[in-house]
Amino acid sequence: MSVDALLVAGGAPPPEDPLYVYTQGRPKAMLWVAGQPMGQWVLDALEANDHVERVVVVGLDEAAGLQSSKVLAYVPDQGDMLANARAGLYRLRLHDPQPRRVLMLASDIPALRSEMIDWALAQDEAEALDAVYFVVRREVMAQRFPGVKRTYVRFKDVEVCGADMHLISSHLATPDLPLWERLVAARKSPRRLAALLGWQVLLKLLLHTATLSEAQRLITRRLGVRAKAVLSPYAEMAMDGDRPAQIEMLRRALRSRKPFAAWRAKPSIASPQVFRDSNFSANSASPFSPPLPLGLARGQKGRRRSAERGEAQGER
């Protein structure tokens, strides 16, 4: 099976996001982890995989400096994940109007490896589905990354978190497909989400009375798509760099792996948009310093406020 890949790399953490102290308004995909940006690690996995033919990157441009011979195009950030996915799929359809399998993945899962992509593609060898949605058991995440904090959904038979890599058909980029409009309308409205899924389905999910396979059957029938949820044995597919603690876990996990040669040979190409591990020194006054452990951070904040009050009293 040959596939195209859609790498969603848009989005910069806002000031209220814990990762902002790392990124300072820059794209999260360019956050430096174990020798190169997170997005480059994901591109390396795609580059090494024999089944992946072309890659469209959404949310960055060529100036970011990511390296891959498979990149077909760069698409500007569309403002949210759903719009980015739709724009990337549309760009792939412009190049090849025939329906194709597309591997859609986030740029912040740097521990991904080529053999994991092989496994994912094998889950729909017949190419008969509109989408394959990958999930990972809580215990698989805990065993590979002890202490990781993730959002889990509890079903009657299993507790899972969503992966950050899925397999979809490029025909879903059809502009007049009603599903897109329904998803856009429902994504921030509980009432519209209930209308989209149906109250019976929603109640089963809220009360945890549906098994994973039952929930899959009910939701796909309601949405009118051919899809299935697949339990992945790879925690790396769901280990995204969403929090400072997860970034540190990923750095430890990737220490033994070699970064892409271009970043080692030409570190200057990363200078405008990439933030290196060397920027994150606990003793540094750099604005890129990582957050301190919560207790220590609170202690320092308390001492700083006390000092500020003392200075104010002195001025009076």
What proportion of the residues is helical, as a percent range? 25-40%
What is the C-level CATH assignment of the domain at 3-187 and 226-254?
Alpha Beta
Number of DSSP strand runs: 10
The end-to-end span amounts to: 75 Å
Q: Count every helix, treating DSSP H or I runs of 4 or more residues as helices.
A: 12
Secondary-structure-based class equals alpha/beta
| CATH topology title of the domain at 3-187 and 226-254 | Spore Coat Polysaccharide Biosynthesis Protein SpsA, Chain A
SSE order, one letter for each helix or strand = EHEEHEEHEHEHEEHHHHEHHH
**In the CATH hierarchy, what is the architecture of the domain at 3-187 and 226-254 at level 2?**
Alpha-Beta Complex
What does the average pLDDT come to?
A: 77
Report on the biggest sheet: 8 strands, mixed
Q: Low-confidence parts lasting 5 or more residues at pLDDT below 50?
A: 265-316
Please state the CA-atom Rg, rounded to the nearest Å: 21 Å
User: How much β-strand is present in the residues?
Assistant: 15-25%
CATH H-level superfamily of the domain at 3-187 and 226-254: Spore Coat Polysaccharide Biosynthesis Protein SpsA, Chain A
Describe it for me?
The protein has 316 residues and is of the alpha/beta class. The chain has a domain of 214 residues: Spore Coat Polysaccharide Biosynthesis Protein SpsA, Chain A. 38% of the residues lie in helices and 17% in strands. Strands 1, 4, 5, 6, 7, 8, 9 and 10 form an 8-stranded mixed sheet that branches. Strands 2-3 form a two-stranded antiparallel ribbon. Strand 8 and strand 9 form a beta hairpin. Helix 6 packs antiparallel against helix 7. The longest helix has 22 residues. The radius of gyration is 21 Å and the shape is globular. It starts with a strand and ends with a helix. The C terminus is likely disordered.
